[in-house]
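Reviewers of the previous submission asked for a worked example of the structure-prediction workflow described in the proposal, so we include one complete record here. The input consisted solely of the amino acid sequence. No template or homolog information was supplied to the procedure at any stage.
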Amino acid sequence: MAQRPGETLPRLPDDAFRRVLCVVAHPDDVEYGASAAVAVWTSRGVDVSYLLLTRGEAGMDGTEPEDAARLRHGEQLAAGREVGVTDIEILAHPDGMLVYSLDLRRDIARAIRRTRPDAVVVTAWDVEFVAGLNQADHRVAGLAALDAVRDAGNRWVFRELLDEGLEPWSPRWVLSSGDTRPTHGVDVTGEPVQAAVRSLEAHGAYLASIEGHPPARVLVEGVTGMQGRLLGTANGVVFRVWDLQARPPLGEGDEG
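From that input alone, the workflow returned the following structure tokens.
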């Protein structure tokens, strides 16, 4: 859906879903994009879970990988609590070298079947996204998560998940964070923005390791302020949204 000049994006309905799974590559990825929306959802009673595909061990140049992984694990748990999320699963795929594979899709499909979400939030998989050139792990995570959404609903794909007692599950919604062509948004004005600031601040050691990184408040308020203008609100988080239960559009003159 192309946004015309002067138009604002529609907001996601308050009752669109009751369970959400956010799939990202690293600790802190949710905090850079969607955490203010997560704060809105959890305040309404929506169950939100996080699946991190790596431990972020390669993200701190001056810290040994195993030490960085332990540190970032703790920071991610603290960040989740700030926006009402305690169900956080962190896998051990290699940070900085994430590879699109059947194993990766299986791991994501397993989490989808376990949490049974109505909506899955993924990162943009395009080479270019809202912040410029997209990082390799983010692209792999987004595309693998997108494919795993369908894998999770097909009992004949990854049959070993049935042996684990995980029945097929098909989420209705896919929300892409960071996409350059957003279709919907969430008004996060007020406390959700402050919760998102605190959630990013929880990654204190990681942020301190990045020379010249702006303060968390400046970054979160700036990004949500820009996205809020697309919604006609003070602060917002926008997504490209797909409804997988919607009928595919038919060409003019087509029937049934």
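The CA atoms of residues 72 and 107 lie 21 Å apart. We consider this example representative of the routine output the project will generate in years two and three.
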